[in-house]
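go over this chain:
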Amino acid sequence: MSIIVEFFAAPDDLSAARTLPGGTRQVFEAVSFGNFDAEEAVLEWECLLAGGDFEELVDAGEPRAVAEQDGSGGAFVFAVSPRLMDALAHAAPDRLRDVAASWVRLRAEEDEHFAPEVADALLGSLAGMAGRARRRGHSVYCWVG
């Protein structure tokens, strides 16, 4: 389980990788949440929102690693796929709520419980960030520490 999860927008991988030592520290627009597997979550959101198969995404190398602390289970940064960014940026609020509800049910099947309003807030925040990032030519990343 992740202790801190920060989704943030950055202009490129190098800029995103610079957050590795301590998170975004408000250098970039970020939304922070905690105590969930962010890598698994972005794959599930992509499947729910844009379609596809979880295992195929994993086999394709998603989510793409950008930086990690010496492989010791420390902090790491990964990129949110362009496909998920596009799907988030273009999703209507009702669609985001449906995806959030589906994700809450999916996690409950694995005995992980999320409040629906937290899932709604998370996906809504990410959708707004994805739209703003796209307009600036940036990407969305995730720092986990």
